[in-house]
Amino acid sequence: MRAAVAPRDVPWIGDSFIDSLPAGATCLSVGEGWGDIALRAALRRPDVQIAAVDLSDSRMAHAREVQRRLGVGNVWFAVADVMSLPFVDDAFDAGYARGVLHIVPDPTAAVAELTRVLRQRLLVDQLANRPFFALWFWLLQRYEVGRAWAQGRPPDRAIWQSTADTIARSGRSYRSLRGYRRWFSSARQTRVCANSVFIWETPRHQPILGWAGCAGAIDVWL
């Protein structure tokens, strides 16, 4: 296997979220995958402590290896399920979920679990909307295959498979971006951000392709 490499320094729609966290804050990532976003956030904010969890042992092992090679000390990786997080109530100041809630069996229960362990703020990214969700995740799977080849590791095939399984279970497409907002009806503030078909959801594309795209983000103040 090739040496693990540092995460790409590419703009992400959650950059402003990470930048706005106060010094000393604790942040949770669920569905972290291979560790790219958490490591990028930890490098960007060395004064913030980050815990990142994923269901996959192999993905978390890879993330820890990259962490070791980079010498990043303010991030911690563990295997855990968003449906039953191993943390006490209000354990973290803030958190984010990227590419998770639209594929879990019960997203309402997942949201309840996230709001249980977070005190102040939650960013939910990569929410698929109608009608282009299938294309979005097909493109995301192609990107993952290419990234895995570049990093010398097996690709995560579950990105598209989880989408296909969800379609098979529900028999319908995902809800609109505004529909996702109903999960957080009791929040103090909820901001819906449209983003585009580009993999890293860069903010510069929002004015042009936002609502025509097939993914979105919700920034929630609990």
Structure write-up:
- The chain has eight helices and seven strands, in the order αβαβαββαβαααβαβ.
- The protein has a single domain, classed as Rossmann fold.
- The longest helix has 19 residues, at 133-151.
- 40% of the residues are buried.
- The protein is globular, with a radius of gyration of 16 Å.
- It has a seven-stranded mixed beta sheet with strand order 3-2-1-4-5-7-6.
- Residues 207-213 have low confidence and may be disordered.
- Helix content is 36%, strand content 21%.
- The protein has helices at 15-20, 36-44, 57-70, 107-117, 133-151, 158-170, 177-180, 206-209; strands at 26-30, 49-54, 75-79, 92-98, 118-127, 189-195, 215-221.
- It is an alpha/beta fold and 222 residues long.
